[in-house]
Amino acid sequence: MRPSRVLTGGSVPGGGAEWTSWFNIDHPGGDGDYESLEAIRFYYRGRVCERPVAIQARTTEWELPEDVGEVVHFSPKKGFRCVNKEQPQGKTCSNYHIRFLCPLEHIYWSHWSSWSPCSRSACGSSGTQTRQRRCVNAQVVAALKELKCKGKAVERRACSAGPCPEPTWTEWGAWGPCSRSCGSAGTRVRRRSCKNAKKLLCAGRPAEVQKCPPSPCPACPEHTLQGTVVSATGAALPSARIYLEGRPPVLVARSDTRGNFHVAGVCEGTAANVSAHRDGFVPGLAPVISNGSGVSVARVTLQKLEKPYMVLHPKPKVRVAGQEVTFCCKASGTPVPKKYYWYHNGTLLDRKVHKYGSRLVLRALVPEQAGTYHCKASTEAGAIRSAPAQLTVLAQGQQSCNPKPEPSLIELPAECRQDAESSRYYDVGHCPPAPCTGSPADGKRCGAGARRCCGVRRMEVREIQCGGSVLPVKVVAECGCGPCAQPRVLVQGRVTAADTGEPLRFGQIFLGRKKIGFTGYQGSFTIEVPPDTQRLVARFVDRQQRLVDAVKVLPFNSRGGAVYQEVKMMRKKEPVELDAGRTNAIPLGEVGGQEPVGELVIPAGAFLRPSGEVFRGTVKASVTFLDPRDIATAGAASSDLSFANAEGEIVPLRTYGMFAVDFREGDSGEALQTGPVEVRMDAGQIRMAEHLKKMKLWSLNPETGLWEEEGVFRPAKERRGKREERTFLIGNMEIRERRLFNLDVPEDRRCFVKVRAYSNEKFNPYEQLEGVVISLINLEPQPGFPANPRAWGRFDSVVTGPNGACLPAFCDARRPDAYSAYLTATLGGEELEAVASSPKLNPNAVGVSQPYLNKLGYRRLDHDDPSFKKTAFQVNVAKPDPNNVDETNGPVYPYRSLKECEEAPVSANHFRFYRVEVDKYEYNVVPFKESDLTSWTGDYLAWWPNPQEFRACFIKVRIEGPQEYMVRSRNVGGSHPRTRGQLYGLRDTRSVRDGLLENSSGACVEFKCSGMLYDQSLVDRTLVSIIPQGSCRRTAVNGLLRDYLARHPPVADANNTAAFTMLAPVDPLGHNYGIYTVTDQNPRLAKEIAIGRCFDGTSDGFSREMKSDAGIAVTFTCQERPAGRESFFQRLLTSPAEALEALQALDVTNRSLAETRGQWESCRNELVGAGEMGEDGPLLGPPHPIPGTGVRGLLCAAPSPGRGKRAGA
C-alpha cells in the first residue's frame, strides 16, 4: 500500500512519536468534506495531543488525494478540508480519513505563532519580524513549577515592505463573445488595465483581438427540447442543472420554479439522453423523445438522497478449524450502496487480500480468526454498519454442545420440604440453545443452512418424596445437537390517541413501503417479525387523517414469543387559515406558562402546488408540535431518536421538539408544498449551553426510522421591544414531502444502564423474566420530581433476555445530576413494580451497593406521595468513575462497555423490577420457562404441547367465606393411553376478595387444556380436580357447564362435595360456562388476557378487580375451624399414619353412622377431589404406600400456603 499523504508541522523532541487512530467525522455532503482538528477534539476528547506534528489523509477507498485528482487543504494545526466548488468540473470531494502524529514526550514546544507584521511598512524599506512558541506539559504539574524545553522560544527574521511598485498590467480578462454566433469565422476581444500607474504608463496594449473558429449553425434552429424535473412523488424541482450527455457532458439549462427547462437547437429524433443534477438528490437520466412536431421532450425523475440502511445482517457461525465460512450483508438506500467494507474485531480487513464485496469468504480457518465480524456499506449519502456476528472456531474433535446439562432450578410445592434445612428448589438441568457446527457445505452459504442447535437429547424421570407422596419430575440427562427451535416472533399491542385514548380503528400498518395489515376495532394489532430482523420499524397511518402518522421502532424478543406494546399517536392540530401572499409565523410549542420553543416562518409566495406553481390563495395550515417540556408526550414521540453517523454507527439524538406539517389549499383541500422556509429556535429555551453550537434540523425517514440531517442552525440576534434583545437559532429547509421534522443535537455523553426483571420480590437469579419491555426516558436537569417533572430529551425501550437488559442513556461524569432517567417495565401490558425507596432505602433490595447508590439518587415514583404508582423509578445517570472501585461494577456502564454490561453476572449491581405475584404457584412435571420458548421440550407430559401456539385455560371459582383461600388445580392425563393417570402439573392460586360483596372472593385457576399432545396424534381430555384449602364444600356448579360435560362423555366422578372434578372440555367455552380460553404465541400474554377476562367475568372484557358473581363455573362455601385445630387435610400432610389410625379407631368404636359420616366423608372427599380415588374407591392412578402404615392409600396433594395475589388485586 502506498503511504498516505503526510504534511508535517514541526519537529519531534527526542524523535519519539506515534500516530493516532484514523478519524472521519464528516461526509462529503453539502459544501465538501471537513475534518477539522477542533471538531475531532470535541467528539474524541483526549484522543489527539495538544500539538500534533504531522497529519496524514486518504480516502475511505485508501487512495491519496492526488491519485483521485482532488484539491485538498490540510495541516496538523487545523486539520483537513476538501471544498466541492474547488474541484474540477463534474467532481465532488471523496470521503476522507485523517490521523495525526503526536510526540511521546510530555514536555514539548507548542506550534509557532504566526510571524508578526514587519516593523517597517513603507515600500523600499527593511525591518524585522518575530514569532513565538511556548513550552507545554501534557501532564498536570504544580502551578509554580518551571517548564524547560530545549531551544528558543522566540525567532526573528529580516523583512521588507518590498520595492515600490512599478506600473503593471492586470491579468487579461476573459474572452468576450464571438462576433458571429455560427457560420463563418468571427473575432473576439479580451481586455486588461494598468495599475499602480501614477507617472509612468504600462508598456503594451490594453486590448487584444483574436479570431474565433467557425461553428456550424444548429441543424434544427426551430426545434426545441422541452423537459421537466420532478421528484419521485411528482413534485416539481426547481434549480436543477440540466446536462446533455456526451464526452464531456454539456450544461445546457436549469429548471425553473415549476421544474421546467427549454433547450433550443436540439434536433428532432436526436438519439441522446439528458441528465439532471440537484443537491440532495441522486442524479437522474432520461431519454430525449420526439413527438414529431419539432419539439422533443424529456421528463427526468430524481430520487431524494437517502442514507443506506441494512436489510441483511451477517449471521453467527460455528465452524471447525480448516473449514471455510461465508458472511453476507446487504444494504439498501438511494442510491443503492455498491461499496462494502468488512471488519474483524473492529479492524478493517484488506480488500485486496480477501477480495470481498457484500460477501466475505474465509477459507482454511484457524482459531485466531474467531471473533466478531461486521460490514459497513457506504454511498455519497452516508454509511451504515451491520450488527456484529460471532464466529466460533473449534479445534478438531472439540464438541460445540456440552453433553452435560447446565444447572437450572425449579421451585417444588411447599409440602415437598423434608426438613427445616432442605431446599424447596430442585435442579432439573438445562441445555443452552447455542448454535452447533454445520456441514462443510454450509461454508459457502450466507445463512446457516439447516440450523442445528444444542438441545435436550435425553430426559429421565425422578421421584421426589413430598410429605408421604411421590411427586414425579423429568430432568435433562444429556444434551446434544439437533434442529433449532424456531418459535414465532411477534409484537402485539394497541394503538390509541395520546390525548383521549380513542383506539385507532382499522388503521393501516406498514413495514417499510409494504402494507402488512390493519389495526382492529379496538386498535389492536399483531406483527410477525420477519426472519433476521435487527430493527423493527412500523408505521401506523390513520386513514381519516385525524392523527399524525406514527413511526415506531418496536422492541421484540428474538428468542420467540410475543411482546406487548402500547402505541400512542399525536392528534393533528386544528388547521388555521393563512394568507399565502403574506409572511406567516407559526409558533412551535405551547406548554402552559412557558414561551414557545420557536416558530416556523413561511415567507410570502413560499407555498407551492406540486407542479411548482406559486399558490396565492388561502392556506389551511396544521402544524402539530410535540413539546418535550411536557413529559406526558414522550409516549407519542416517533422513532427512537437515532441517526447513522459518518461511520455508519447508529447513535442517539437529544430532542428539543418535533413537528409535523400539513398544508392544504383552502377551497379544494389539495396538498401544498413550500419553497425555502425558516425554523427559528429561541436560544433561551436551550438549557445546556454546549448544545447551542450542535443544534441541527432533522427529518425522519419513515422506512428506516432513522433521522436524517436537513440543515444546520446559525445564531442571530433580534430586538424585541426597546430593551429586550434575544438570540435565535435560524435554520432553513424546504417542505416537499410529508415528513416529521425534529430539532435535535447529537449527544456523545452516553452510557448503558443495567436492569433485570424478576418473577417475584425474592429476586432469585433463576427466576428472572424474559420478554419484559423496559423503557427509559432521559430527563433534562431540573430539580423537583414528580411535582415538577423535567423535560424529556430521549427515550429507549429494550426487551429483557436471559441476562436482563442494557438501556442506552445520556450521562455525565462531572455532574451526577446533569442527566436523570425515568424507568418503567411492562410484561404483556402489565406494569411491573419497582423496589421501594421509602421509608428506608435498602441497597440489597434495589440491587445497587453503597455509596454509588446515593450518588445515583434512586427514588421510586411514590417516594414523597404514596398516591403515585409504584411502577417506575428515577435515577441520576452518573457516569462511573473508572478510578473508583465502587463504580466499576454497574449498574451504569460507559458507552464503549456494552459487552461488559450485557455479560455482567447477576451478582453485579443492577436495577430491579418484579411481578406482584404473591400466593401463586406453578409446577410442571416437564420443566419449561415461559419467558424462554427455546426451553420447551417435546414430551407427552409437557404442559404446553405446541411451542408455536399456547392455549391458556382458566376456570373461575367463587368462594363464600370470611377470608381468602388457596385453591389448587391438579391436572393428570384423562383419556390418552400414554398419559392416563400421570401428572402434568399443579397450579395454586389464592382467591381475591370482591370489593362489592361481603364474605365473597373469587379465584381464577389455571388448568391444562384438553387437546392434542405434542405428537399431534390423539386428543387427551385432562382430568382436572379443583380443590380449595380449608373446610369447604361445593354448593353450586354452572348449569351450562354441567350439561356440556354430561353431553361429552366420559364423565368424571364428581360426587365429592369438597372438590370439583371434570374431564376438561376440548371446545373453547366462554364466560357463560365459567371457562376462559385464550390462544396466543406468547404463553404469558395468553394467560394475562385469560385472567383479565376471568376477573371481569366476560369473554371479551378485561379487569383487575375481582367480580366474584359474574361468569362463575363452580361455587364453594368455606367455614373457619376452631383455633388450634388441624383439618384432616393438614393432618394427612403432617402425620399421615396417625390420621389414618384415628380414622380406623372411629370405625371400631361402633359410633353411630350419623356421628362418623361427616368425618369419613371429609377424608374420602378430599381423596376423591385429589383425583386419586373414585366415589366407590377405584384408583385413577397407581397408588403409593404411605410410610408408617399398614394400609395402602394416597396423599391428597395440598395447596401451598402463603403464595400471592395477582398484580393489582
Automatic annotation (TrEMBL):
InterPro entries to which the protein is assigned, alphabetical: CarboxyPept-like_regulatory (IPR008969), CILP-1/2_8th (IPR056257), CILP-1/2_b-sand_dom2 (IPR056256), CILP-1/2_C (IPR056258), CILP-1/2_dom (IPR056255), CILP1/CILP2 (IPR039675), Ig-like_dom (IPR007110), Ig-like_dom_sf (IPR036179)
Localisation per UniProt entry: Secreted, Extracellular space, Extracellular matrix
Record bears the keyword 4Fe-4S: no
Pfam families membership: CILP, CILP_5th, CILP_8th, CILP_C, Ig_3, Mucin2_WxxW, TSP_1
Database matches in Gene3D superfamilies: Immunoglobulins, Thrombospondin type-1 (TSP1) repeat
All residue ranges annotated as the Ig-like domain in the record: 308-392
Any one cellular-component term (Gene Ontology): extracellular space
PROSITE patterns from the UniProt entry: IG_LIKE, TSP1
Record key words, sorted: Cleavage on pair of basic residues, Disulfide bond, Extracellular matrix, Glycoprotein, Immunoglobulin domain, Secreted, Signal
Transmembrane segments: none
Protein name: Cartilage intermediate layer protein 2
Organism: Cairina moschata (Muscovy duck)
